Amino acid sequence: MSDYGGGSASGGMSPGEGQTTQVGVNGRLSKKDRVVLCSVLCKCKVIGVATRNGRIQRQRCVQQRLDAANEVSRIATGTPTEYRPEQTYNMQANPPEPVTDPDDPLQPHSDLRKWIEDFWPGGRTQYKAGQGNLRRPDVVVVNDPTQPPVQSNISQVVEFKFPPDAFGRNQERDYIRIAGARSKFVTLGPAECGCGDDDSDSKTSTQKQSQTSTDMDDVLGGSSGSSMSNGGGLPPALPPPPVPPVFP
């Protein structure tokens, strides 16, 4: 794990911790952030990502589009954008620390099982899934894209919810803890982004089924309340989006 973890991060929680966050409050997002994230959300609401079994994974679509934009930014500027999808956090640290690539602290760790084996006390034999030890928000918006997504560099933690998806046990509370303040946590859905309404809203988005969407629910466990039925096997990688998003 990178030494970037906690150096400049400021811990603590804001007053009002433990209250219920109002879904869809967007006043804390900047105009640019809302335009970018709502554009991605609305596209993925319509398109999603089709898997071999025909299920639509909209959160996977969000990740693919933001990852594609980050790769374009790395080529052009040497750093990713300020939008970091599916960044895992170690909730046992105070404040929670991003689980990043040991060679590149701007990248999420690509293998959570290896990270657990290497860095968790007792390794995989002592790690307990489903207890909120690791959390992975949909998108973390950072202030400075040249620095790791530690708490002091977080502008907003954003969770996308495609109806009828709902928060898992303690998921909302933990995302606020990652952000460091209630005012830095936002939930977005199609209604808040003005995506329109159609029959797809009545169907589950199966948002937490792919490896890179929650990177193995048998490891993260509590983020969606589900686990992979194959006992730890990983599904095949999904193809990249046909066209990378262009941010305003």
Automatic annotation (TrEMBL):
> VRR-NUC domain: which residues?
80-192
Coiled-coil portions: none
Molecular function in Gene Ontology = hydrolase activity, acting on ester bonds; nuclease activity
Pro residues bias (residue ranges):
236-248
User: Which stretches does UniProt call biased (Low complexity)?
Assistant: 203-214
**Could you tell me where the Gly residues compositional bias lies?**
1-15
The region called Disordered is annotated at 1-25, 193-248
What UniProt keywords are attached to this protein's entry? Hydrolase, Nuclease
Q: Provide the cofactor list for this protein.
A: Mg(2+)
Q: SMART domains attached here?
A: VRR_NUC
Q: Does the keyword Hydrolase apply?
A: yes
What superkingdom heads the lineage? Bacteria
The molecule here is called: VRR-NUC domain-containing protein
Q: Which organism is it from?
A: Paraburkholderia bryophila
